[in-house]
Backbone:
């Protein structure tokens, strides 16, 4: 392996030149595109040469103030850029480059997809288009002219406003766009192709009219309505919640089927993975609808948090991502509107955080929310930057209140609009707007790892005082052995024996609260509550007020009490999860010891009450009845045994199913949704609960009657949610009953790529699907490794979502993994790197599996031609 350089946050230096304008002309063609760039540069900081980034470009010509530069005396070209020697103080640089979009399989820079052309520039893709300081703190005003064949590329889009269009002498057509806002290169975009749009005029809060468009390939206009609705809701929400208005006259969303990520917030021209745009009830599930709403919101919200105020350098990535995820989470919760709906949405967010981010934080890729170094920035678009970053932002709101948080946001924009700033600037705005000292809070940005908060309680009958003692610790992470205490908001409530909330009088305070935020800043602190007449049950870390692991020695009866009564719906759910997790961890041990398995009635009765409580939101009941995933149980295991985990969890599912068969059947019947499909939270919640009931009913696979219930649902379903859920249940039986419905499904949707993804994914993630079947599916004519959605639907679904087969004892899953990593590495390093991360935790597995995983990792590590992306990861994992 060759060594690749590490970039350090400490080495940040401002760019020595200001570039007031960039004028780009594209002669677009899939085989050869020419890019003419002209920029005005002025030196603002001392330094000598001018450095421009480049990646895989061919330089056709370069002129400085009209004079052609010489490769001998005026500039030096090397692998990652161009150095202009001793430039003047102020000058114009004109460069012509050539790229080959149809040869570009990385999906970064300018690339072709289904005959159309798209760009993706974040983080460092602009350097694959032209020579430029491709860093977020160099902000420029762009003028862009696109020229192309009028028929093949009938639509020509770029950022900002369309100022001119027409026909060229040679018969091609052109369009000229000006973005009135200066921006960093990563927010540049163009789209050229045969596309159609749904458009609408929309009036902003200020009364200004704007044009909204959703662009898709011909034939997909029946799937754009939900994205359009989501966009309008996002615009309204940002006006109302944060006083932020759309600053352009035109806002476009474009769907592309080849895309590495979810979507991209290019100024005024958001480019989306089709998965997060296209929906109608026939092809999209309730989850798809919810994801579309949240991703449309996320990208739209970036217009202020990311674009108007951007990042100084990529170490500050969470400045825009953590904040924007927080905003999209709040948006989704507000769209549901009800308290229980908010809790359901919060629970979903926390589930991802715990399952994915906590495990990242406990592995070889653990890094702070603001990292100190990286090799390949693409590897840092992580759950830590996004989801933990969002939790960090949420903690400001918990500490400062909603109004205080809003004041902080207002000050942040007042200070930094139009600038490229840091996480420290954000924290300073929050502190200054509220007159608070948030110095210690900085550690959430600089220290990796998940803190553990251990709570002990003491009740003094005589004094009628209740004391909670909180103690924090955080395990070492790579490169950080000793951690200093974090500033942790812990929201608590106390329940009396009837399940009623006790008024809380913290010692020294005269007014009572139902819930209060304890601020843990030392390693250990005690908080004393007065006027507590009897021993309470503590409800700790309400609404998951901090991204920590909370330990408290709850008894089963306390947990059942919380599950039945807590006014904090999040903690109600949490109590149920604690009950389930304790039992599952015990069952795993029993499986390993070869003991007989059993499940006690306390658990069954406690969750049975929730299942049958019709006053509760169906979506909430579904969550309570959903066991912690196998991935979550792996995360909690000291030594991971995927087979024991699977057996234990299946056993528990069957016990629940057997004991509550009648209840599930009743719930199944009672939660049918009739009439026209609607993706709203209530209807989706009912479908979710009903389909969970169906899954339990069928989990005793011998039951023919239940299988025919699922078959009937497959045949009669009026929407994709119900059809796919029933099909999944059948596929999971591994029985012949699934063959025909699977074939029908394929036939019905053969021309819809996103649904065929579901078809692959469903099979790949079934515990009955082994690696041989996956290999067979890879030979299916519809399989295509170049398309990330398709690769994810089959390969990632198998490696990520099918642990019991992926971790087959003979190591066949790992050999498959190594092959696919190497195949993808040659096509698309970003996608390959995502797959590498499946083995993050190889050192936590049983020794026999570990040895086989190490073999697979070494196979990859010792291969030639590894991308920076893959190499950085395997090096860190093998360290
Ligand atoms: N910035 C995008 C988002 O979070 C994610 C992204 C990163 C997309 C890199 C493409 C490439 O919304
Ligand atoms: Zn984002």
Residues:
């Amino acid at each position: 392996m060759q060594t690749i350089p590490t970039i350090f946050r400490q080495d940040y230096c401002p760019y020595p030149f200001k570039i007031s304008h960039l004028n780009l002309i594209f002669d677009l063609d899939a085989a050869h595109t020419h890019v003419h760039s002209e920029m005005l540069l002025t030196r603002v900081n001392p330094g000598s040469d001018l450095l421009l980034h480049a990646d895989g470009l061919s330089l056709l010509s370069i002129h400085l103030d009209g004079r052609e530069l010489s490769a001998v005396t005026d500039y030096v070209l090397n692998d990652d850029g161009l150095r202009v020697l001793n430039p003047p103080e102020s000058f114009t640089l004109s460069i012509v480059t050539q790229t080959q979009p149809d040869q570009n399989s990385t999906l970064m820079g300018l690339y072709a997809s289904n005959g159309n052309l798209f760009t993706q520039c974040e983080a460092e893709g602009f350097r694959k288009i032209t020579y430029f300081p491709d860093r977020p703190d160099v902000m420029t005003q762009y003028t862009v002219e696109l020229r192309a064949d009028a028929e093949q590329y009938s639509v020509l889009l770029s950022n900002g406003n369309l100022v001119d269009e027409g026909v060229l002498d040679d018969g091609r057509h052109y369009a000229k766009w000006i973005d009135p806002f200066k921006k960093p290169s990563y927010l540049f975009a163009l789209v050229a192709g045969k596309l159609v749009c749904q458009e609408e005029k929309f009036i902003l809060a200020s009364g200004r009219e704007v044009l909204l468009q959703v662009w898709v390939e011909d034939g997909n206009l029946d799937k754009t309505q939900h994205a359009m609705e989501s966009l309008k809701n996002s615009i309204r929400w940002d006006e109302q919640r944060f006083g932020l208005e759309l600053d352009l006259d035109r806002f476009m969303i474009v769907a592309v089927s080849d895309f590495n990520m979810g979507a991209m917030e290019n100024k005024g021209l958001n480019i989306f993975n089709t998965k997060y745009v296209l929906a109608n009830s026939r092809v999209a599930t309730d989850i798809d609808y919810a994801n579309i709403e949240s991703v449309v919101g996320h990208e739209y919200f970036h217009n202020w948090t990311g674009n108007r105020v951007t990042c100084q350098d990529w170490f500050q990535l969470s400045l825009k991502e953590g904040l924007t995820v927080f905003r999209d989470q709040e948006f989704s919760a507000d769209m549901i509107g009800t308290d229980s709906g908010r809790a359901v949405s919060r629970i979903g967010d926390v589930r991802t955080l715990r399952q994915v981010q906590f495990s990242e934080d406990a592995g070889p890729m653990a890094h702070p929310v603001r990292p100190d170094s990286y090799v390949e920035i693409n590897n840092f678009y992580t759950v830590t930057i996004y989801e933990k970053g969002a939790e960090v932002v949420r903690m400001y709101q918990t500490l400062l209140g909603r109004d205080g948080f809003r004041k902080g946001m207002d000050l942040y924009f007042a200070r930094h609009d139009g600038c490229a700033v840091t996480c420290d600037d954000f924290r300073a705005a929050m502190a200054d707007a509220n007159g608070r000292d948030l110095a210690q809070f900085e550690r959430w940005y600089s220290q990796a790892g998940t803190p553990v908060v251990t709570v002990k309680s003491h009740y003094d009958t005589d004094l009628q005082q209740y004391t909670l003692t909180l103690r924090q610790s955080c395990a070492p992470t790579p490169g950080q052995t000793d951690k200093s205490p974090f500033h942790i908001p812990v929201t608590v409530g106390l329940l009396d024996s009837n399940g009623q909330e006790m008024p809380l009088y913290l010692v020294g305070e005269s007014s009572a609260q139902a819930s209060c935020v304890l601020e843990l800043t030392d390693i250990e602190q005690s908080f004393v509550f007065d006027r507590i007449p009897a021993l309470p049950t503590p409800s700790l870390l309400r609404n998951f007020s901090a991204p920590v692991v909370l330990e408290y020695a709850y008894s089963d009866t306390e947990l059942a009490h919380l599950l039945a009564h807590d006014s904090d719906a999040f903690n109600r759910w949490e109590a149920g999860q604690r009950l389930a997790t304790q039992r599952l961890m015990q069952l795993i041990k029993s499986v390993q010891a070869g003991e007989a398995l059993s499940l006690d009635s306390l658990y069954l009765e406690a969750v049975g009450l929730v299942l049958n409580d019709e006053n509760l939101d169906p979506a909430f009941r579904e969550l309570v009845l959903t066991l912690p995933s196998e991935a979550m149980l792996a995360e909690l295991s000291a030594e991971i045994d995927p087979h024991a985990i699977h057996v234990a969890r299946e056993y528990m599912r069957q016990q629940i199913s057997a004991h509550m068969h009648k209840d599930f059947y009743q719930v199944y019947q009672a939660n049918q949704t009739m009439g026209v499909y609607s993706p709203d939270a209530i209807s989706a919640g009912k479908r979710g609960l009903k389909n969970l009931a169906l899954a339990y009913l069928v989990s005793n696979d011998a039951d023919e009657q239940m299988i025919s219930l699922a078959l009937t649902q497959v045949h009669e379903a009026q929407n994709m949610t119900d059809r796919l859920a029933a099909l999944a249940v059948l596929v999971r039986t591994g029985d012949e009953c699934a063959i025909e419905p699977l074939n029908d499904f394929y036939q019905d949707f053969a021309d819809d790529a996103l649904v065929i993804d579901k078809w692959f994914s469903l099979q790949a993630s079934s515990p009955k699907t082994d690696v041989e079947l996956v290999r067979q599916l890879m030979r299916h004519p519809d399989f295509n490794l170049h398309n990330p959605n398709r690769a994810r639907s089959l390969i990632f679904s198998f490696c990520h979502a099918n642990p019991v087969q992926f971790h087959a004892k003979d190591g066949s899953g790992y050999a498959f993994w190594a092959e696919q990593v190497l195949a993808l590495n040659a096509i698309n390093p970003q996608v390959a790197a995502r797959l590498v991360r499946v083995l993050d935790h190889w050192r936590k597995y049983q020794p026999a599996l570990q040895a086989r995983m190490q073999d697979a990792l070494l196979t990859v590590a010792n291969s030639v031609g590894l991308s920076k992306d893959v190499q950085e990861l395997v090096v860190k994992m093998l360290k």
